[in-house]
Amino acid sequence: MAYLYQSLANRLAGSIDSGLYAPGDRLPGVRVTSRNEGVSPATVVAAYERLEVDGYVESRPRSGFFVRPRRAALQQEPGLSRPASAPKAVTGAQLVAQIVRSVGAPEVVQLGANIPHSGFLPTAALSRELKAVARDYVDRLGDYEAPPGLPRLRHGIARRMADIGCLARPDDILITHGAQEAVYLALKCVTRPGDVVAVESPTYYGILQVLDSLGLKALEIPTHARTGISIDALTLALEKWPIRACVLVPNFSNPLGALLPDVHKRALLDLFANYPDVTVIEDDVYGDLAYHERRPSILKSYDQRDQVIYCASFSKSLSAGLRIGWIVSSRHAEQLAIHNFVHNCGSSLINQLALAALLEKGSYERHLRSMRVALAQNLGRLSERIAQHFPEDVKVSRPEGGLSVWVELPQGTDTTALFHRAYAQGISIAPGQTFSTDPHKYRHCMRLNAGVAWNERLESALQTLGQLIKTA
Questions:
Q1: 166: which residues sit within 8 A by CB, 6+ positions away?
Q2: Helices (H), strands (E): how many in the chain?
Q3: Which residue among 64, 107, 199, 414 is least crowded, i.e. fewest CB within 10 A of its CB?
Q4: What pairing do the DSSP bridges indicate for beta strands 196-201 and 217-224?
Q5: 414, 441 in Cβ contact below 8 A?
Q6: What is d(CA 472, CA 469) in angstroms, rounded to the nearest whole number?
Q7: pLDDT by residue (tens digit) across 172-186?
Protein backbone atom coordinates (compact mmCIF):
# COMPACT_ATOMS: atom_id res chain seq x y z
CA MET A 1 0.00 0.00 0.00
CA ALA A 2 1.47 3.35 -1.03
CA TYR A 3 2.11 6.10 1.49
CA LEU A 4 -0.21 9.11 1.19
CA TYR A 5 2.68 11.39 0.20
CA GLN A 6 3.72 8.86 -2.50
CA SER A 7 0.22 8.85 -3.99
CA LEU A 8 0.31 12.65 -4.12
CA ALA A 9 3.79 12.59 -5.66
CA ASN A 10 2.58 10.14 -8.31
CA ARG A 11 -0.33 12.40 -9.25
CA LEU A 12 1.91 15.45 -9.49
CA ALA A 13 4.44 13.51 -11.56
CA GLY A 14 1.64 12.57 -13.94
CA SER A 15 0.69 16.24 -14.25
CA ILE A 16 4.29 17.09 -15.09
CA ASP A 17 4.60 14.24 -17.60
CA SER A 18 1.36 15.32 -19.29
CA GLY A 19 2.65 18.86 -19.73
CA LEU A 20 0.29 20.52 -17.24
CA TYR A 21 3.42 21.84 -15.55
CA ALA A 22 6.22 22.70 -17.98
CA PRO A 23 9.97 22.92 -17.23
CA GLY A 24 10.59 26.07 -15.22
CA ASP A 25 7.03 26.29 -13.84
CA ARG A 26 6.61 26.75 -10.11
CA LEU A 27 4.48 24.15 -8.33
CA PRO A 28 1.68 25.50 -6.12
CA GLY A 29 2.79 26.40 -2.61
CA VAL A 30 2.66 23.87 0.19
CA ARG A 31 -0.35 25.48 1.88
CA VAL A 32 -2.29 25.75 -1.38
CA THR A 33 -1.67 22.11 -2.29
CA SER A 34 -2.46 21.05 1.28
CA ARG A 35 -5.85 22.77 1.08
CA ASN A 36 -6.64 21.58 -2.45
CA GLU A 37 -5.65 17.95 -1.80
CA GLY A 38 -7.04 17.72 1.72
CA VAL A 39 -3.74 16.53 3.20
CA SER A 40 -1.37 17.92 5.80
CA PRO A 41 1.43 20.35 4.87
CA ALA A 42 3.94 17.69 6.00
CA THR A 43 2.50 15.27 3.44
CA VAL A 44 2.86 17.88 0.69
CA VAL A 45 6.48 18.59 1.67
CA ALA A 46 7.26 14.85 1.62
CA ALA A 47 5.64 14.54 -1.83
CA TYR A 48 7.64 17.48 -3.19
CA GLU A 49 10.84 16.02 -1.77
CA ARG A 50 10.01 12.69 -3.42
CA LEU A 51 9.59 14.51 -6.74
CA GLU A 52 12.95 16.18 -6.14
CA VAL A 53 14.67 12.84 -5.60
CA ASP A 54 13.08 11.50 -8.81
CA GLY A 55 14.36 14.49 -10.76
CA TYR A 56 10.99 16.11 -11.47
CA VAL A 57 11.48 19.30 -9.49
CA GLU A 58 14.15 21.34 -7.73
CA SER A 59 13.78 23.53 -4.66
CA ARG A 60 14.94 27.11 -4.64
CA PRO A 61 15.51 28.83 -1.28
CA ARG A 62 12.58 31.09 -0.32
CA SER A 63 11.02 30.56 -3.76
CA GLY A 64 9.47 27.07 -3.77
CA PHE A 65 9.66 24.04 -6.03
CA PHE A 66 10.18 24.33 -9.79
CA VAL A 67 9.83 21.75 -12.58
CA ARG A 68 13.16 20.55 -13.95
CA PRO A 69 14.03 19.57 -17.51
CA ARG A 70 13.57 15.80 -17.78
CA ARG A 71 16.81 14.92 -19.55
CA ALA A 72 18.10 12.73 -16.71
CA ALA A 73 14.97 10.56 -16.71
CA LEU A 74 15.84 9.35 -20.21
CA GLN A 75 19.02 7.65 -19.04
CA GLN A 76 18.98 3.91 -18.55
CA GLU A 77 19.87 2.28 -15.25
CA PRO A 78 22.60 -0.37 -14.98
CA GLY A 79 21.25 -3.92 -14.90
CA LEU A 80 22.29 -7.02 -12.97
CA SER A 81 26.06 -7.41 -12.73
CA ARG A 82 27.78 -10.55 -14.04
CA PRO A 83 30.96 -11.15 -12.04
CA ALA A 84 33.25 -14.17 -12.18
CA SER A 85 31.73 -17.24 -10.54
CA ALA A 86 34.74 -18.42 -8.52
CA PRO A 87 36.49 -17.05 -5.40
CA LYS A 88 39.49 -14.82 -6.14
CA ALA A 89 42.27 -13.02 -4.33
CA VAL A 90 42.18 -9.21 -4.22
CA THR A 91 44.31 -6.93 -6.41
CA GLY A 92 44.51 -3.20 -7.18
CA ALA A 93 45.76 -1.81 -3.86
CA GLN A 94 48.01 0.78 -5.52
CA LEU A 95 45.17 2.43 -7.43
CA VAL A 96 43.02 2.46 -4.29
CA ALA A 97 45.86 4.13 -2.38
CA GLN A 98 46.07 6.87 -5.00
CA ILE A 99 42.34 7.57 -4.72
CA VAL A 100 42.61 7.75 -0.93
CA ARG A 101 45.60 10.11 -1.10
CA SER A 102 43.60 12.53 -3.24
CA VAL A 103 41.10 13.11 -0.41
CA GLY A 104 43.26 15.68 1.33
CA ALA A 105 44.25 17.59 -1.81
CA PRO A 106 42.39 20.94 -1.80
CA GLU A 107 43.14 21.53 -5.47
CA VAL A 108 41.23 18.38 -6.51
CA VAL A 109 37.45 18.21 -7.10
CA GLN A 110 36.57 15.19 -4.97
CA LEU A 111 34.22 13.12 -7.11
CA GLY A 112 36.22 9.99 -6.29
CA ALA A 113 36.20 9.55 -2.52
CA ASN A 114 32.76 8.81 -1.04
CA ILE A 115 32.99 11.46 1.66
CA PRO A 116 30.43 14.25 2.17
CA HIS A 117 31.68 17.81 1.97
CA SER A 118 31.78 19.64 5.31
CA GLY A 119 28.92 21.85 4.13
CA PHE A 120 26.58 18.86 4.53
CA LEU A 121 27.70 18.22 8.11
CA PRO A 122 26.77 19.85 11.45
CA THR A 123 30.23 21.27 12.03
CA ALA A 124 29.00 24.14 14.24
CA ALA A 125 27.02 21.85 16.55
CA LEU A 126 29.86 19.37 16.72
CA SER A 127 32.34 22.15 17.49
CA ARG A 128 30.18 23.36 20.38
CA GLU A 129 29.99 19.89 21.91
CA LEU A 130 33.72 19.28 21.56
CA LYS A 131 34.45 22.62 23.24
CA ALA A 132 32.03 21.82 26.06
CA VAL A 133 33.55 18.41 26.58
CA ALA A 134 37.09 19.86 26.54
CA ARG A 135 36.01 22.37 29.18
CA ASP A 136 34.09 19.95 31.41
CA TYR A 137 36.53 17.02 31.16
CA VAL A 138 39.83 18.91 31.00
CA ASP A 139 41.52 16.34 33.24
CA ARG A 140 40.69 13.56 30.73
CA LEU A 141 41.68 15.21 27.43
CA GLY A 142 44.45 12.69 26.89
CA ASP A 143 42.44 9.59 27.73
CA TYR A 144 41.01 6.91 25.53
CA GLU A 145 38.06 4.70 26.39
CA ALA A 146 38.95 1.01 26.46
CA PRO A 147 36.67 -1.50 24.72
CA PRO A 148 33.74 -1.83 24.57
CA GLY A 149 33.55 1.98 24.74
CA LEU A 150 31.78 4.76 26.65
CA PRO A 151 28.62 3.36 28.31
CA ARG A 152 26.78 6.65 27.77
CA LEU A 153 27.40 6.48 24.02
CA ARG A 154 26.54 2.78 23.78
CA HIS A 155 23.21 3.50 25.48
CA GLY A 156 22.53 6.30 23.01
CA ILE A 157 23.27 4.02 20.06
CA ALA A 158 21.07 1.28 21.53
CA ARG A 159 18.17 3.75 21.74
CA ARG A 160 18.68 4.79 18.09
CA MET A 161 18.73 1.16 17.00
CA ALA A 162 15.51 0.52 18.92
CA ASP A 163 13.92 3.37 16.97
CA ILE A 164 14.60 1.49 13.71
CA GLY A 165 13.22 -1.79 15.01
CA CYS A 166 16.32 -3.50 16.36
CA LEU A 167 16.67 -4.28 20.05
CA ALA A 168 20.37 -4.25 20.91
CA ARG A 169 21.70 -4.34 24.44
CA PRO A 170 24.37 -1.72 25.26
CA ASP A 171 26.57 -4.59 26.45
CA ASP A 172 26.48 -6.05 22.92
CA ILE A 173 27.67 -2.79 21.34
CA LEU A 174 31.39 -2.20 20.76
CA ILE A 175 32.69 1.26 19.75
CA THR A 176 35.19 1.12 16.86
CA HIS A 177 37.28 3.43 14.67
CA GLY A 178 34.61 3.67 11.98
CA ALA A 179 32.66 1.02 10.08
CA GLN A 180 35.66 -0.33 8.19
CA GLU A 181 37.39 -1.34 11.39
CA ALA A 182 34.10 -2.89 12.51
CA VAL A 183 33.99 -5.02 9.34
CA TYR A 184 37.65 -5.92 9.84
CA LEU A 185 37.04 -7.05 13.43
CA ALA A 186 33.96 -9.04 12.41
CA LEU A 187 35.87 -10.89 9.68
CA LYS A 188 38.85 -11.39 11.99
CA CYS A 189 36.49 -12.97 14.51
CA VAL A 190 34.72 -15.48 12.23
CA THR A 191 37.23 -16.39 9.48
CA ARG A 192 40.68 -17.83 8.98
CA PRO A 193 43.16 -17.16 6.13
CA GLY A 194 42.05 -18.90 2.95
CA ASP A 195 38.33 -18.77 3.77
CA VAL A 196 35.81 -17.69 1.14
CA VAL A 197 33.73 -14.57 1.77
CA ALA A 198 30.75 -13.65 -0.43
CA VAL A 199 30.38 -9.99 -1.38
CA GLU A 200 28.19 -7.90 -3.66
CA SER A 201 29.55 -7.15 -7.12
CA PRO A 202 30.66 -4.46 -7.55
CA THR A 203 31.58 -3.86 -3.92
CA TYR A 204 33.40 -1.18 -1.96
CA TYR A 205 37.14 -1.39 -2.45
CA GLY A 206 37.71 -0.92 1.29
CA ILE A 207 35.95 -4.23 1.94
CA LEU A 208 38.14 -5.91 -0.69
CA GLN A 209 41.27 -4.50 0.95
CA VAL A 210 40.14 -5.83 4.33
CA LEU A 211 39.71 -9.29 2.79
CA ASP A 212 43.19 -9.02 1.28
CA SER A 213 44.76 -8.01 4.60
CA LEU A 214 43.22 -11.07 6.30
CA GLY A 215 44.23 -13.51 3.55
CA LEU A 216 40.62 -14.17 2.51
CA LYS A 217 39.15 -14.88 -0.93
CA ALA A 218 36.26 -12.86 -2.31
CA LEU A 219 33.37 -14.51 -4.12
CA GLU A 220 31.49 -11.81 -6.04
CA ILE A 221 27.72 -12.25 -6.30
CA PRO A 222 25.59 -10.64 -9.07
CA THR A 223 23.95 -7.46 -7.80
CA HIS A 224 21.32 -5.12 -9.24
CA ALA A 225 21.80 -1.36 -9.10
CA ARG A 226 18.35 -0.78 -7.64
CA THR A 227 17.43 -3.86 -5.57
CA GLY A 228 20.81 -5.17 -4.45
CA ILE A 229 22.29 -8.64 -4.27
CA SER A 230 20.66 -11.48 -6.24
CA ILE A 231 19.28 -13.98 -3.74
CA ASP A 232 19.04 -16.66 -6.44
CA ALA A 233 22.72 -16.23 -7.31
CA LEU A 234 23.70 -16.23 -3.63
CA THR A 235 21.71 -19.43 -3.10
CA LEU A 236 23.64 -21.17 -5.87
CA ALA A 237 26.93 -19.88 -4.49
CA LEU A 238 26.17 -21.22 -1.00
CA GLU A 239 25.41 -24.63 -2.50
CA LYS A 240 28.64 -24.70 -4.51
CA TRP A 241 31.31 -23.01 -2.38
CA PRO A 242 32.43 -23.30 1.28
CA ILE A 243 31.44 -19.73 2.13
CA ARG A 244 32.39 -18.73 5.67
CA ALA A 245 30.93 -15.21 5.77
CA CYS A 246 28.94 -12.80 3.64
CA VAL A 247 29.57 -9.03 3.75
CA LEU A 248 26.55 -7.01 2.64
CA VAL A 249 25.63 -3.32 2.40
CA PRO A 250 21.83 -3.64 2.19
CA ASN A 251 21.04 0.09 2.44
CA PHE A 252 22.36 2.30 -0.39
CA SER A 253 25.32 0.09 -1.19
CA ASN A 254 28.67 1.40 -2.27
CA PRO A 255 29.18 1.84 -5.22
CA LEU A 256 25.77 1.01 -6.76
CA GLY A 257 23.56 2.80 -4.26
CA ALA A 258 21.16 -0.18 -4.22
CA LEU A 259 18.50 -0.58 -1.53
CA LEU A 260 17.59 -4.15 -0.65
CA PRO A 261 13.77 -4.34 -0.26
CA ASP A 262 12.42 -5.52 3.09
CA VAL A 263 11.01 -8.68 1.52
CA HIS A 264 14.50 -9.52 0.23
CA LYS A 265 16.04 -8.84 3.64
CA ARG A 266 13.70 -11.33 5.25
CA ALA A 267 14.35 -13.83 2.45
CA LEU A 268 18.11 -13.49 2.99
CA LEU A 269 17.81 -14.34 6.67
CA ASP A 270 15.58 -17.32 5.80
CA LEU A 271 18.23 -18.48 3.33
CA PHE A 272 21.07 -18.19 5.85
CA ALA A 273 19.04 -20.17 8.38
CA ASN A 274 19.95 -23.19 6.25
CA TYR A 275 23.64 -22.33 6.67
CA PRO A 276 24.11 -21.71 10.41
CA ASP A 277 27.91 -21.73 10.12
CA VAL A 278 27.89 -18.76 7.74
CA THR A 279 28.11 -15.34 9.42
CA VAL A 280 26.37 -12.37 7.83
CA ILE A 281 28.27 -9.10 8.27
CA GLU A 282 26.00 -6.11 7.69
CA ASP A 283 27.67 -2.79 6.84
CA ASP A 284 25.03 -0.09 7.39
CA VAL A 285 27.19 3.01 7.09
CA TYR A 286 24.75 4.72 4.68
CA GLY A 287 21.46 3.70 6.30
CA ASP A 288 20.82 7.10 7.89
CA LEU A 289 21.09 8.87 4.52
CA ALA A 290 17.73 7.92 3.00
CA TYR A 291 16.52 10.75 0.77
CA HIS A 292 12.85 10.22 1.59
CA GLU A 293 10.33 8.17 3.58
CA ARG A 294 11.46 6.52 6.75
CA ARG A 295 14.92 5.19 7.40
CA PRO A 296 15.20 1.71 5.81
CA SER A 297 15.20 -1.37 8.01
CA ILE A 298 18.33 -3.34 8.79
CA LEU A 299 19.05 -7.05 8.43
CA LYS A 300 19.86 -7.27 12.14
CA SER A 301 16.25 -6.41 13.01
CA TYR A 302 15.12 -9.68 11.34
CA ASP A 303 17.88 -11.76 12.92
CA GLN A 304 16.44 -14.35 15.31
CA ARG A 305 19.58 -16.52 15.54
CA ASP A 306 22.27 -13.90 16.25
CA GLN A 307 23.76 -14.80 12.87
CA VAL A 308 24.23 -11.16 11.79
CA ILE A 309 27.11 -9.00 12.98
CA TYR A 310 25.97 -5.41 12.50
CA CYS A 311 28.50 -2.68 11.63
CA ALA A 312 27.89 1.06 11.25
CA SER A 313 29.42 4.47 11.87
CA PHE A 314 28.77 8.21 11.90
CA SER A 315 31.53 8.84 9.35
CA LYS A 316 29.23 9.53 6.37
CA SER A 317 26.48 11.32 8.24
CA LEU A 318 28.24 13.33 10.96
CA SER A 319 32.03 13.39 10.78
CA ALA A 320 34.63 11.10 9.28
CA GLY A 321 37.28 12.74 11.47
CA LEU A 322 35.66 11.61 14.72
CA ARG A 323 36.39 7.99 13.74
CA ILE A 324 33.41 6.66 15.66
CA GLY A 325 31.71 3.48 14.51
CA TRP A 326 30.18 0.51 16.25
CA ILE A 327 29.58 -3.19 15.98
CA VAL A 328 26.74 -5.27 17.42
CA SER A 329 26.86 -8.97 18.22
CA SER A 330 25.82 -10.86 21.34
CA ARG A 331 27.43 -14.15 20.29
CA HIS A 332 30.83 -12.61 19.52
CA ALA A 333 30.83 -9.61 21.89
CA GLU A 334 33.70 -10.77 24.12
CA GLN A 335 35.96 -11.93 21.28
CA LEU A 336 35.31 -8.73 19.31
CA ALA A 337 36.31 -6.62 22.31
CA ILE A 338 39.55 -8.56 22.66
CA HIS A 339 40.39 -8.12 18.96
CA ASN A 340 39.54 -4.42 19.25
CA PHE A 341 41.88 -3.96 22.21
CA VAL A 342 44.71 -5.75 20.41
CA HIS A 343 44.10 -3.70 17.29
CA ASN A 344 44.00 -0.20 18.81
CA CYS A 345 43.50 -0.32 22.62
CA GLY A 346 40.40 1.88 22.40
CA SER A 347 38.84 5.03 20.93
CA SER A 348 39.02 8.71 21.85
CA LEU A 349 37.06 9.46 25.02
CA ILE A 350 36.52 13.12 24.11
CA ASN A 351 35.02 12.26 20.75
CA GLN A 352 32.71 9.69 22.31
CA LEU A 353 31.52 12.16 24.95
CA ALA A 354 30.77 14.82 22.32
CA LEU A 355 28.86 12.38 20.16
CA ALA A 356 26.88 11.07 23.13
CA ALA A 357 25.80 14.66 23.91
CA LEU A 358 24.70 15.25 20.29
CA LEU A 359 22.54 12.13 20.38
CA GLU A 360 20.99 13.00 23.73
CA LYS A 361 20.01 16.52 22.62
CA GLY A 362 18.41 15.38 19.36
CA SER A 363 20.87 17.43 17.32
CA TYR A 364 21.83 14.47 15.17
CA GLU A 365 18.25 13.72 14.08
CA ARG A 366 17.59 17.36 13.22
CA HIS A 367 20.78 17.45 11.18
CA LEU A 368 19.83 14.29 9.28
CA ARG A 369 16.57 15.82 8.05
CA SER A 370 18.37 18.71 6.38
CA MET A 371 21.26 16.59 5.12
CA ARG A 372 18.92 14.17 3.35
CA VAL A 373 17.21 16.98 1.45
CA ALA A 374 20.55 18.55 0.49
CA LEU A 375 21.92 15.23 -0.79
CA ALA A 376 18.75 14.62 -2.82
CA GLN A 377 19.18 18.03 -4.44
CA ASN A 378 22.80 17.25 -5.24
CA LEU A 379 21.87 13.90 -6.77
CA GLY A 380 19.31 15.56 -9.02
CA ARG A 381 21.81 18.14 -10.22
CA LEU A 382 24.50 15.52 -10.75
CA SER A 383 22.15 13.35 -12.83
CA GLU A 384 21.24 16.34 -14.97
CA ARG A 385 24.85 17.28 -15.61
CA ILE A 386 25.72 13.70 -16.53
CA ALA A 387 22.88 13.74 -19.04
CA GLN A 388 24.05 17.10 -20.34
CA HIS A 389 27.81 16.50 -20.62
CA PHE A 390 28.38 12.73 -20.92
CA PRO A 391 27.70 10.51 -23.97
CA GLU A 392 24.02 9.76 -24.58
CA ASP A 393 24.36 5.99 -24.13
CA VAL A 394 25.65 6.06 -20.54
CA LYS A 395 23.75 4.21 -17.82
CA VAL A 396 23.39 5.87 -14.43
CA SER A 397 22.14 4.46 -11.14
CA ARG A 398 19.24 6.17 -9.36
CA PRO A 399 19.93 5.69 -5.66
CA GLU A 400 17.35 6.62 -3.05
CA GLY A 401 19.98 7.44 -0.44
CA GLY A 402 23.68 7.42 0.34
CA LEU A 403 26.48 9.08 -1.59
CA SER A 404 27.26 6.78 -4.52
CA VAL A 405 26.33 7.28 -8.17
CA TRP A 406 27.40 4.43 -10.48
CA VAL A 407 28.01 5.32 -14.11
CA GLU A 408 28.38 2.77 -16.91
CA LEU A 409 30.13 4.31 -19.91
CA PRO A 410 30.21 2.80 -23.41
CA GLN A 411 32.05 -0.53 -23.67
CA GLY A 412 35.70 0.05 -24.48
CA THR A 413 36.03 3.09 -22.25
CA ASP A 414 38.90 2.72 -19.79
CA THR A 415 38.05 4.57 -16.59
CA THR A 416 41.44 3.74 -15.07
CA ALA A 417 43.08 5.72 -17.88
CA LEU A 418 40.32 8.31 -17.43
CA PHE A 419 41.20 8.57 -13.72
CA HIS A 420 44.78 9.56 -14.53
CA ARG A 421 43.76 12.03 -17.25
CA ALA A 422 41.11 13.62 -15.02
CA TYR A 423 43.44 13.78 -12.02
CA ALA A 424 45.95 15.71 -14.10
CA GLN A 425 43.21 18.32 -14.50
CA GLY A 426 42.31 18.42 -10.82
CA ILE A 427 39.39 15.97 -10.88
CA SER A 428 39.20 12.73 -8.91
CA ILE A 429 36.92 9.81 -9.84
CA ALA A 430 36.75 6.21 -8.60
CA PRO A 431 37.43 3.87 -11.55
CA GLY A 432 35.34 0.72 -11.79
CA GLN A 433 38.16 -1.80 -11.60
CA THR A 434 38.76 -0.94 -7.93
CA PHE A 435 35.36 -2.40 -7.02
CA SER A 436 36.15 -5.96 -8.14
CA THR A 437 38.79 -8.65 -7.74
CA ASP A 438 38.95 -8.79 -11.54
CA PRO A 439 41.04 -5.88 -12.89
CA HIS A 440 39.21 -6.14 -16.22
CA LYS A 441 35.72 -6.10 -14.71
CA TYR A 442 33.84 -2.79 -14.61
CA ARG A 443 36.69 -1.17 -16.55
CA HIS A 444 34.11 1.00 -18.36
CA CYS A 445 32.41 2.07 -15.13
CA MET A 446 33.08 4.63 -12.41
CA ARG A 447 31.65 5.81 -9.13
CA LEU A 448 30.96 9.49 -8.51
CA ASN A 449 30.40 11.15 -5.13
CA ALA A 450 27.01 12.86 -4.75
CA GLY A 451 28.16 14.54 -1.53
CA VAL A 452 30.56 16.99 -3.14
CA ALA A 453 30.12 20.76 -2.71
CA TRP A 454 28.05 22.20 -5.55
CA ASN A 455 29.68 25.29 -7.03
CA GLU A 456 31.06 26.70 -10.28
CA ARG A 457 34.23 24.67 -9.86
CA LEU A 458 32.23 21.44 -9.79
CA GLU A 459 30.13 22.52 -12.77
CA SER A 460 33.33 23.11 -14.75
CA ALA A 461 34.81 19.79 -13.58
CA LEU A 462 31.78 17.81 -14.79
CA GLN A 463 31.92 19.52 -18.15
CA THR A 464 35.64 18.74 -18.42
CA LEU A 465 35.06 15.14 -17.37
CA GLY A 466 32.44 14.77 -20.08
CA GLN A 467 34.86 16.08 -22.69
CA LEU A 468 37.56 13.68 -21.52
CA ILE A 469 35.14 10.76 -21.82
CA LYS A 470 34.06 11.74 -25.34
CA THR A 471 37.67 12.07 -26.52
CA ALA A 472 38.91 8.88 -24.85
A1: 298, 300, 301, 310
A2: 15, 18
A3: 107
A4: parallel
A5: no
A6: 5
A7: 999 999 999 999 999
